[in-house]
């Protein structure tokens, strides 16, 4: 990471682009194998009639109907909120008559249907719509991940570069504000790779959701560790004496 301090900005951005594309690829893979197949299955279980209009869901489904369920995602239609089943998936999306809720280990969030919604909620309409938009959603997800990583790295580097500059000042390292910003930005990449590996393990079923959340917290700590240690590996300022050198001895 310290080698990025004297490097050019273009070299740093190139390496960050490689890391961001890798992270985006893992996210797209997770959506393609874990979530989107469940959504496709749920759409195929919908009746031939149904729509969301005037802030209400109208559907011929009676009682609580589980449309699709995997370890990652569960989709339920329960117009009268009669469902008493235990949530077995990491994420639950439940459609009610006047709202829908999203539940996970963090609890549930309830959202009312927007007043302007006029959405078909039936198999004949949603099936071709989803088949046409699924590849676009995957591409949009990749773009959002890459743009989000670059934006977060730039913002955090702007916040952390002062710490790097201060450490370099006290350790007599060859760091100015520009090189401190580049080092701070580069120090965030190992943490991103760690969390990307965790997401990949989650998609394979090796890492559960609780461990993935813990890994998210750990990846923040890893970034701080690299941020604190990397300035020590930056070369000293020219003319600064090393420890043990005699300033009165000439060559």
Briefly summarize what is shown.
This protein is an alpha+beta fold.
Description:
With 251 residues, the protein is of the alpha+beta class. It folds into 2 domains: 2-27 and 139-233, no CATH class; 47-121, no CATH class. Helices cover 52% and strands 15% of the residues. The chain has 5 helices and 8 strands; from the N terminus they run αββββββββαααα. The chain has a 5-stranded mixed sheet with strand order 3-4-5-6-7. It has a 3-stranded antiparallel sheet with strand order 2-1-8, with no helix packed on it. The mean pLDDT is 89.
Task: Give the topology.
Elements: H1 9-44, E1 51-53, E2 56-58, E3 64-69, E4 73-78, E5 91-95, E6 99-104, E7 107-112, E8 118-120, H2 123-170, H3 177-186, H4 189-204, H5 209-229
Parallel strand pairs: 4-5
Antiparallel strand pairs: 1-2, 1-8, 3-4, 5-6, 6-7
Helix pairs in contact: 1-2, 1-4, 2-3, 4-5
Largest sheet features = 5 strands, mixed
Helix content: 40-55%
What distance lies between the first and last C-alpha atoms, to the nearest angstrom? 34 Å
- Assembly status: single chain
**Within the largest sheet, what's the order of strands?**
3-4-5-6-7
Domain tally: 2
How much of the polypeptide forms β-strand, as a percent range?
15-25%
Tertiary shape: elongated
Query: How many E-type strands?
Result: 8
Count of helix runs: 5
């Amino acid at each position: 990471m310290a080698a990025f301090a004297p490097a050019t900005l273009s070299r740093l951005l190139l390496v960050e682009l490689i890391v961001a594309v890798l992270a985006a690829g893992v996210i797209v893979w997770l959506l393609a194998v874990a979530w989107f197949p469940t959504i496709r299955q749920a759409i195929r279980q919908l009746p031939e009639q149904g729509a969301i209009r005037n802030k209400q869901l109208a559907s011929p489904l009676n009682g609580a109907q589980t449309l699709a369920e995997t370890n990652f995602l569960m989709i339920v239609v329960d117009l009268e909120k009669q469902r008493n089943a235990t949530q077995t998936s990491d994420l639950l999306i439940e459609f009610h008559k006047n709202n829908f809720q999203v539940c996970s280990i963090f609890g549930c969030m309830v959202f009312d249907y927007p007043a302007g919604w006029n959405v078909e909620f039936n198999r004949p309409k949603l099936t071709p719509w989803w088949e046409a938009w699924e590849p676009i959603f995957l591409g949009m997800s990749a773009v959002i991940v890459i743009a989000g990583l670059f934006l977060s790295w730039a913002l955090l580097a702007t916040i952390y570069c002062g710490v790097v500059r201060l450490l370099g000042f006290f350790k007599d390292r060859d760091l100015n504000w520009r090189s401190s910003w580049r080092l701070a930005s580069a120090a965030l990449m190992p943490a991103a790779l760690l969390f990307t590996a965790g997401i990949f393990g989650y998609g394979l079923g090796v890492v559960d959701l609780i461990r993935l959340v813990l890994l998210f917290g750990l990846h923040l700590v890893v970034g701080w560790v690299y941020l604190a240690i990397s300035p020590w590996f930056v070369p000293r300022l020219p003319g600064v004496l090393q420890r043990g050198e005699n300033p009165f001895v000439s060559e």
